[in-house]
Amino acid sequence: MKKALISFRDVWKVYQMGEVQINALKNINFDIQPNEFTAIIGPSGSGKSTMMNLVGCLDTPSRGEILLNSRNIAHMDESDLSRLRGKTIGFVFQQYNLMPGITALENVLLPLEIQEIDDDVALERAKEVLELMGLSDKLDNLPSQLSGGQQQRVSIARSLACDPELILADEPTGALDSQTGLDVMNILYRLWKEKGKTVVMVTHDMNLAQYARRHIVLKDGMITRDEANGKTIDADIDNNDFRMVVKNEF
């Protein structure tokens, strides 16, 4: 059996708001295996954002353990964790988070520079992932000279620059029109299907969730469903009678 890429073991995340204690996540347990496409689904307030920060190792749990490639992130100092996170996880956000004053190529070079990759190797890699995103003619464009969909593709290219095992996408189409959003989802799907990447997508959109092959449903900080392999999901994530049939293939 493959070693889990990320493991949650009895994870709680608790915030203290004055005299009030908020349990954002409660007793969370799951493994993310290599080459899974998982959607973490839930409405506002369900704990999705907290889960995203923990899956991305941007935060540590109040109780329990999170293992990234079998290493307990709570036992790592920030520099070691940052290095491991940079090599293992690529982030795609709803807002593209591109540096406005530098070109598409320079934006993609940033994580390679942080990881201290040799300049020639980094330049070749950045051009390679931008070409993969269909942007080889946009290397010298500033973000303001690109459409929203092109900016998100630059963001995806940047997430791929260090060849991470895991792509973590947070509402990746939230700032895009419907057709451009579909194009971005098809890119993420192909990265999973054809390139063998592990993809974890955090979303409230059940239509986007159809691209994933596993669905972890959150409600009130707890996992209410964890299903895979194209099963029907009775999501029950809000006050609506919300049901979704997950397609087997596209």
Give your account of this protein's structure.
The protein is of the alpha/beta class. The chain has one domain (35-57, 81-245): P-loop containing nucleotide triphosphate hydrolases (Rossmann fold, 3-Layer(aba) Sandwich). Helices cover 31% and strands 29% of the residues. It is built from 7 helices and 12 strands. The chain has helices at residues 48-55, 78-88, 104-114, 119-132, 148-160, 178-193, 206-209; strands at 6-17, 20-32, 37-41, 63-68, 71-72, 89-92, 166-170, 198-203, 214-219, 222-228, 232-234, 243-245. It has a 6-stranded mixed β-sheet, sandwiched between helices. A hairpin with a 2-residue loop joins strand 1 and strand 2 (20-32). Helix 3 crosses helix 4, helix 4 (119-132) packs across helix 5 and helix 5 (148-160) packs parallel to helix 6 (178-193). The longest helix has 16 residues, at 178-193. It is globular. Residues 230-250 have low confidence and may be disordered.
Could you give me the name of the CATH homologous superfamily?
P-loop containing nucleotide triphosphate hydrolases
Just give the CATH class. Answer: Alpha Beta
CATH structural architecture: 3-Layer(aba) Sandwich
- Count of individual helical segments: 7
How many distinct folded domains? Answer: 1
Which shape, going by the Cα principal axes?
Answer: globular
CA-CA gap between termini: 28 Å
What's the β-strand tally?
12
Q: Give the oligomer, counting copies of the same chain as homo and different chains as hetero.
A: single chain
Radius of gyration: 18 Å
Percent of residues in helical segments? 25-40%
